[in-house]
């Protein structure tokens, strides 16, 4: 057991058994967060897709429930979303509101090459425990498009209708509906903008507030599939702009990445978070199609990122997504060591014992005159991951070459990088679990999400600076709280 479970995360959702990919149907209803997920219950590699299911009260501790959706004569169950039909627009809920899942049916067999992708509905009267497939499925199909999948649906208040964003090749198509059953085409986005390094998948569209202002913008998130022509594998881009219920217009011309690590894909946000809460909470699949099927876990494969609250911030002349791990995580940590005004240099690097099954470090660093500085996470005496800021190159690197098991893919050892605007003063927050590291810079302005396969999560953390000094204005080292 110990060996099989060695990499199982404590703070992140992972399936009990077998394969998982994208988060699906993220929705809050009656006090529970629901996480459905792409699941192959018969093997620990990708295969015929089902929707697995888990629920949580605090977004961190998840309880896995029975499989929610099984393949049927229309195909296997690809990615999609879920909403609460508060006003019974569907007619499925004459008594009281319930959940509707909107997902892709993927049909692939001798008679269906290329495969056929259509959108379908299922509904639940018992808080997602059991589901009925709508007898009018599919509700949306296309005569020619082969890539026609991953519906994300939300209620658009101003126009009083449901809006669906759908991945359609290398564009996003927008549809609308009064009742989730009849859909009308509105517009298509993406022809001449953004990265087209791979097929577009798993879109999400929502409005976000700009921090410290009364302004809002619409944000479109688009995952880009793995393309062997490029080194990085799969990743996620986003656009900031406006949406009038029919058309999305981007105001940024540059390509924007949601994450600078290799392991955050197919992420989308929760539906129906109560107004009093008001957060936009995002969750991604913490893997990369380049090596997802080969990562060295046994019996189970893949985990989700930590849930993150999204906002917008005006930085460097543009409006950018900011991501912060939800505050619910704070409960899971207790401070082990705090330091203030500490000088780190060649002669006095510092090592902090952690010996923890998960750990967190927060650092406000001011560079005095160092060329390179940063921190090393020592998983064991011989396995470590290093985060280095190179002042000259204005880059932050995460190096996982020595982090443990890396041999399963040549791509895994490549250095992950963030381009920095300034290197004088930086705020870093790093959360390490059994088999991952999530780095947030400058209060969520940049994120870097990375899998790791060490024998143990975190033995100690050390700080370093080369050819000069760095001042640790504030450092905080945290370990599991004993609840
Ligand atoms: C993204 C994706 C989706 C699809 C699902 C199939 O990772 O390729 O486009 O619906 O995975 O499992």
Automatic annotation (TrEMBL):
One of its GO terms (molecular function) is sucrose alpha-glucosidase activity. Residues 12-323 form the Glycosyl hydrolase family 32 N-terminal domain. Transmembrane segments: none annotated. SMART domains: Glyco_32 (SM00640). One of its GO terms (biological process) is sucrose catabolic process. Keywords: Carbohydrate metabolism, Glycosidase, Hydrolase. PROSITE patterns: GLYCOSYL_HYDROL_F32. InterPro entries: ConA-like_dom_sf, Glyco_hydro_32, Glyco_hydro_32_AS, Glyco_hydro_32_C, Glyco_hydro_32_N, Glyco_hydro_beta-prop_sf. GO terms for cellular component: cytoplasm. Residues 350-473 form the Glycosyl hydrolase family 32 C-terminal domain. Belongs to the glycosyl hydrolase 32 family. This is Glycoside hydrolase.
